[in-house]
Amino acid sequence: RGDSKVADRQVDSVCPYCGVGCQLTYHIKDDAILFVEGRDGPSNQNRLCVKGRFGFDYPNHSARLTRPLIRRPGVAKGLDPDFDPAHPLSHFREASWDEALDLAADGLTRLKAAHGPDALAGFGSAKCSNEEAWLFQKLVRTGFGSNHVDHCTRLCHASSVAALMECLGSGAVTASFMQALEADVVLLTGCNPAVNHPVAATYFKQAARNGTKLIILDPRGQALDAYAHRSVRFTPGGDVALYNAMLNVIVTEGLFDQAYIEAHTEGFAALQAHVGDMTPEAMTGLCGVAPETIREIARLFARAERAMIFWGMGISQHVHGTDNARCLISLALACGHIGRPGTGLHPLRGQNNVQGASDAGLIPMVLPDYQPVTDAQVRAAFEELWATPLDDKPGLTVVEIMEAITAGTIKGMYIQGENPAMSDPDLDHARAALGRLEHLVVQDLFVTETAQFADIILPASAWPEKEGSVTNTNRQVQLGRAAVPLPGEAKPDWWIIQEIARRFGLGWDYTHPREVFAEMKRGMASLDHISWARLEREDSVTYPCAADDAPGADVVFSDAFPRAGGRARFAPTRPLPPDEPVDAEYPTVLTTGRQLEHWHTGSMTRRARVLDALEPEAVASLAPAELSRLHLAPGDPVTITTRRGAITLTARVDPSMPAGLVFVPFCYVEAAANILTNPALDPDGKIPEFKYAACRLSRAEPQ
Ligand code: SF4
C-alpha cells in the first residue's frame, strides 16, 4: 500500500476477467497502472481474486500490438515454430490505418461480391464492451448481410441459454449469486467457483458459515468441499442420470410444490410420468452415486424453504449440455425454488461480458435481447432501426463456421478478440480451417495464435483503455472507464469496427460509446430505465429495471415467466452416453477447463507477470493412484493421446481427482489441450463436448 503514496490519480472501473464483474480502482502514475484495489461493487464488496488484483499489466507487455500489420507476400499462414509474436515483422509489415483498413474491408467486400453474403462470417468478443458487441453484430448483419456471427458463448453456456430460453423464456440468471446468503440450501454442480468465479465463491463460503447447506455435485473434488454439507462425486457424463433420479425421488415421495406447479408451470404430469422408471436404483450404475445418497440430497433440496442451483461448464460442455440444464430447471420448478429471495437458477457466466455480448446479439440465431431472426415482426423492427434489410436465416455457430470454411462455403472472416486457434475443439482441424480462409482480418491486442493465420491484424484496445458498459453474471450493467491511454497507434475496438463498416458503405458516425448505448436502448427492452448518465452516476444497474430511480430486480419471475401464458415449462430428458465413451484403447476420461491464475486461452494472463510466474507451465492434474499406475512422479512428463492428437505436459498430483480422469487447462499453446478435445456438438446449444473425451495416458521421456 506504500505505492498509494506515489499514484497521481485513480480511475474506477471493472475487472476484465470473469463474469463476476468485480468493481475495482486502478491506481495510476504517469499513465501506468501501479496497482489495483477492489471497491464496493454490488458483486464484490471490495473483494478481488488474484487475477483482478495482479493481472493488470498485460496491456504493457512487450509483444503488445501498436501498429496495423499486413502479412508479407509469400509468408505461409499458420503457426510457425520460428515465429516470435513479440517480433512480428519477420512475417508481417507495418502499415498505416488507412492502408490496413482499406485492405481489410476490400478483401471482405470482394468475397461478398463474388460469392454472396454467406461467404463471410464474424466472431465478436465477450471481452469487449456491450457497445462493441452491438456494433460488431450490426456490421455482420447489415454489412456482411448474414447472421453468421457468434462468440465464445458457444463454447461456454450456449446449452444453458438454450434450455433457459425453452423452459423459462429468458436466458439470463433468475437471481444473483448474492442471494445464496438468503438460501437454506445451495446446490452447486458442474462448477468450481473457487477457481473460476473466486469472488462468487466467497459468498458461498459466507453462506455456509451462516448455516446454508451447500450440496456440491461434481466428478472432481474442490476447495469448497471444506464448506459443504454434502459433497457427492458422480461418474463423468452421469449427470443427467443423477438429476433424473433426484426428480424421481421428488415425484415419488411427493416432495414437489403442488401449488407452485399449478400456478406457474406446464408439463409437470408428463415429467412425472417420464421420470417414473428412473429410480435411484436404476440410475446408480450410470451416475455412480449410491441410491441412499441420491435420496438424501433430493430430500434436502426439495424440503428446503429456499434453495438455489448454480452450475458451470461441467454442465454445459457436453453433448447433453442442454439436457443437463433442462434437468436443473425441472428440479427448481418442481420444488418452487424460483422467484423468491434465496431461490433461483444461476448459470455462472464465464467471461466478463459474455452475458452482455449475448444480450447485444452476438448470436447467430437471435437479434439483440434474444429475439429470433426468423420472426418477421422482430426483423421489421430492426430493419427500421438500422434502415437495412436483414437475413431471415439463422446463421452458423462457431464450430459450424469452421466446418463451413473446410467445406469451402465461408471464405472470409473478421475475428475480433477471439482466439479459435486455441479455443476450438479438435484444434488441428480448426487451425487447418483458418488456414483455408481466403481473407482473414484479426483485431486483437497481440499476435495471438489466431492472428498468425491473418492477412491483416488491427491493433485494438485493452480493457483498462476502454470506455464502455459490461454486463456480469448477475445481470448487472456496469461502467468501465478508460484508465490509461492506448499505446502507439492502437485504437478503440468500436472505432475500428466503425471504420470497417464505413468501407462497407454503412455510413456510421458514432463519436462515443454513449451514442451506441443510446441506439441499443431503442432495440433492447432489457435496458429500459438504464441510461448512460445513470451508469456514470451509479456505476452499476441491474436489469430488468422498473423505473429510472428504481433499483433493478435482483430476483425475477416472482409472478410470471416471459413465455406465452406466463408459465414455465418442464422439459423431460433421458440419459445419453458421451459422444466418445472410454474403451480399451482410450480408457481414461479427459476433461479441460481453466486455472485460477489463467484466463481462457492465456492471451492476457500469460502476459501478466505475476500470474504467469504463479502458473508458468502446462500441467495435467491426476489422482495419486493414476500417477502410481503410470509409474509417474509429480513433475514427470506425461503424454495424453486421443483420436485427434497427442500432447506432452507435466504431471501434477491432485488428490481431488478421481482415478480414470485427467484435467488439462486449455491456455498453454505449447501443450494445447484442444488438440485433444472432441468437436461433437450438443444438438440444441451447438456446444462442443469439452468435458469428456476418451484418452490414453503414457509416460513420456524427459526432454
Ligand atoms: Fe475479476 Fe472474476 Fe476475480 Fe472478480 S472474481 S477479480 S471479476 S477474475
Provide an overview of this structure.
- It is a single chain.
- The protein is α/β, with parallel strands linked by helices and 703 residues long.
- The chain has 24 helices and 30 strands.
- It has a 7-stranded mixed β-sheet.
- β2 and β3 form a beta hairpin.
- α8 runs antiparallel to α11 (280-287), α8 packs across α12 (291-303) and α17 (398-407) crosses α19 (427-436).
- The longest helix is centred in the N-terminal third of the chain and has 19 residues, at 97-115.
- The two termini are 43 Å apart.
- The relative contact order is 0.17.
- The mean pLDDT is 96.
- Residues 15, 17-18, 20-22, 44, 48-49, 51-52, 197-199 line the site of iron/sulfur cluster.
Key words describing this protein structure:
703 residues; 7-stranded mixed sheet; 6-stranded mixed sheet; 19% strand; binds iron/sulfur cluster
Question: Could you give the topology of this structure?
Answer:
Blueprint: E1 9-14, E2 23-29, E3 32-38, H1 50-54, E4 69-71, E5 92-94, H2 97-115, E6 120-123, H3 130-144, E7 149-150, H4 153-156, H5 158-168, E8 185-189, H6 193-196, H7 198-209, E9 213-218, E10 230-233, H8 239-252, H9 258-264, E11 265-266, H10 268-274, H11 280-287, H12 291-303, E12 307-311, H13 313-316, H14 321-334, E13 344-347, H15 354-359, E14 366-367, E15 371-372, H16 376-386, H17 398-407, E16 412-416, H18 420-423, H19 427-436, E17 439-444, E18 456-459, E19 468-471, E20 476-480, H20 493-503, H21 513-523, H22 532-538, E21 540-542, E22 568-569, E23 588-593, H23 609-614, E24 619-622, H24 624-629, E25 637-642, E26 645-653, E27 661-665, E28 678-681, E29 688-689, E30 693-699
Parallel strand pairs: 6-7, 6-16, 8-9, 8-12, 9-10, 11-22, 12-13, 16-17, 17-18, 23-27, 24-26
Antiparallel strand pairs: 1-2, 2-3, 4-5, 4-18, 14-15, 19-20, 20-21, 23-30, 25-26, 25-30, 28-29
The protein binds iron/sulfur cluster.
